[in-house]
Every structure is written in C-alpha cells, then in structure tokens.
Request: fold
Amino acid sequence: MAATAQTINYNGLFTSTLMNYNATLVDNVSKSMLLLYHLMKERDDGYVPAGDGLGAKKQINLMYGLNNAEPYADYDQIEYAPVDGITAAFWDWRQLATTVQISRIEERKNSGRHAIFKLLKARIKQATLGIQEKFAKMLMQGNGINNNAAGQIEAPYAHPTTGRKFIDPLFLLVKKDPTTSTTIGEINQSTETWWRNISYESTSSSYAGFLFELDDLYTQLQEGPGGSPTLFVCDRRTYLYYNAALRSKQRFIEYKRAGFPFEATDFHGHPLVWDTFMPNVEARTTTQSPSQGSLAMLSPQFLEIEYDPETNFMNTPFETPPDQDARSSKLLWYGAQGTSQRRKQGVMWGIDTTPVA
Reply:
C-alpha cells in the first residue's frame, strides 16, 4: 500500500487568515486613540471610502461665505448679485505599510496546520499592535517621532530614510499659531483669515480659573453654524488637573456609555479623554511638563479621514522573495486626512497643571 501524504497550502492559509482578520484589524486601529475611534466608529462620514477612484488628491469643498438676504415688499427689485465664498482644500494621498513574515525554519519548527495557525496568529497580532500604535502616534505627534525639535509635531511624519510622508497630523490642522504663513490643504492660513483654528493660551493658576478658560474656549467654538465641539483630548497631567478641579467644586461626572472603550470624564455631555501621544502644544514638541499641559477641543463633523476602499489595511498574498528563505505579506493602507472647517477646531496650551484650589 502506498504511503499517504498530506499537503497543506500554507500560502492560501496565511493569505485567507489575514483577509478574514481585516475587520478586526480596522477595529483595533480605531480603538488606539479617541480621535480615530470617533471618526471610524461614532460617525457615518468621519472615516469614509473614496468614491470613483482616488484622483490626484483628496478634495474637500469649503464654504467660507454666505448669501446675503434682504427684506423686500410688493414689486421691489430683488438683488441678484453673485456671491463668492465657495472653494476647495486639497490633501495628498499617503501610503502606509507593514509586513507579516514567517521563515521556513519557523514553519518547520511549528509544522502541522494547527501549530502553523497559532504562529500566524502571533505574527498577525504583532503586526496589528505595530501598525495600531504607529498610526495613532503619527496622527498625534507628526514628525516629532523622528525629531523632537520645536514645530515637528506640525509636520507630517517622514520615513527616516526615504523621506516619504504620512497624512497631515492633527496639530497641523489645529495649530498653536494659526496666523503664520503656512499652507494647509493648499490654502494659506496667513492670508485667508477664515481658514484658522482657535488657539487659546491658558494663564490661569487656579481650579476656578482653569474651568472658566475651558468654558471660554468651548463657547468660542460654538459660534457660527455647525454646532459645538464634541471631542476633547488632552495629556495625562491635564486630565488629572481637570478631574481635581471638578472634585473641588463637587461636580465630578464620569463619562460612561456602553461599548465606549476609553476612561473619560464628562465635559458638556461629551467625553474628555487623555491620550498618551498628546504632544506639548506650547513647546511644539512631544515632551510634556507639569506646567505646559495641552487640550484639544474638536468638532469631528468637520474632520475626515478618507481611505482607498481597495487598500484599507489590505493584505497581499504571501510570497517568497528570491533572496530569502521566508514568506511575507504586506499590510497596506492608502488615505488622507483633512478638515472642512478649521474655525470649529480649538486647542488650549500652556496649562499649569500644578494643583491649586
């Protein structure tokens, strides 16, 4: 009787396992930071697929002026004057990649379908944690990851060797100084005053003063159409300081909602969360200090991450390079981040988080 043999198509096993893991990967990435979670989970239009092809750049149409309305009576002439006030902002599409790799000796040491599957799951988890942390870090800290010089948190993360850039970081869109000659979405914020976020320097040294400043910035961001900010992100020291200030006034309210994966405190009915990657906006670096806290007040309805639907953490088939005894698959993402209304985004900086009642 001839000997029997079992052939396992490891390439098919590896590739199909990664394909089935895609939804979990996107979910894990969204839970890596509050902003990503809000855009990807809380809104229908915050994390969206691109339409019919990508085009040269991501385009967001903007409205910076409104039609004029005047009363009239009977047979009065109605004004027909054309109204300017519509333009567009453009952002470059950016690419991100990581790999899942398994050498042949690792396959042999873990031979058998179930052993290989366990090893593959470990490799996938390793890749997921890597891309999850890097995505969140690049979004919050920009090129401050590579170079902690002042201002690098406002520059897109650049590959240390090739210089290739990732999407624009949050604190380029919500800058400490929105008056400098800086082009954002191909619009110069220096000359286009309507294209500026709200920047607020904290000067308070008491709990009451700090709470007043928060409400001051919040009400400024309420002005005009579009509603109130609903997303509040700060560094750990500022989060502790805010909670201490609330307790001193006996009005501490923990933010709780089923399925919400972050510890948060309520601020005007919405979550205020600290993020480990929150930069120091006053110094414009990634290094925090007790006297330089930072807090972003965001209106996510005017923020958007658009991705290529065919490359949304997509995996390529496992292949063996000609110069390696190993198999690898690439995890790829294409997308861009932009905003349609910077005026509804705000940042408070220079918060002295030394507790003073």
